Amino acid sequence: MLTLTRSVGESIRIGDDIEVVVIEVRGGTVRLGFKAPRSIAIHREEVYQQIVEVQALASAVAFDVAGALSAFVPRASAEELVPSGPRTAVDTGHDVSRGTSETTDARVTS
């Protein structure tokens, strides 16, 4: 851990985008000011730990819900997934023997 000493009004730079300024020192308490892009999240440690705990709980709940919901999704059997028998012109209305998509007369005459 890097340890630095600063007085009131002095600052510390972190990279190009973040500046930490010592605002006030009173007893054992230090007030700090932060200048950073809005895209950078800045939290007190105890708040950050709560956020981590809530995210872990939400992730576990989402996983449990997805698992529970999957029990209600109907699953196709192997017979439903694989068509049985060869395809014929009667099935499709097309002449599959010539590899074309010309429509044939699928009527059966006796």
Structure, described:
This protein is of the alpha+beta class and 110 residues long. The protein has a domain at 11-69. It has helices at residues 45-70, 78-81, 89-92, and strands at 11-14, 18-26, 29-35. The radius of gyration is 34 Å and the shape is elongated. This is Translational regulator CsrA.
Q: Which helices and strands occur, and which strands form pairs?
A:
Layout: E1 11-14, E2 18-26, E3 29-35, H1 45-70, H2 78-81, H3 89-92
Antiparallel strand pairs: 1-2, 2-3
Region (Disordered): 83-110
Keywords: Bacterial flagellum biogenesis, Cytoplasm, Repressor, RNA-binding, Translation regulation
GO molecular function, one term: mRNA 5'-UTR binding
Features:
about 110 residues; translation regulation; about 20% strand; mRNA 5'-UTR binding; about 30% helix
Number of strand elements: 3
Report the span from N to C terminus: 93 Å
Which percent band covers the strand fraction?
A: 15-25%
What overall geometry do the principal axes of the alpha carbons give? elongated
Give the mean pLDDT.
78
Please describe the biggest sheet, giving its number of strands, its sense, and whether it closes into a barrel: 3 strands, antiparallel
Order of strands in the sheet with the most strands? 1-2-3
- Helical amount: 25-40%
Radius of gyration: 34 Å
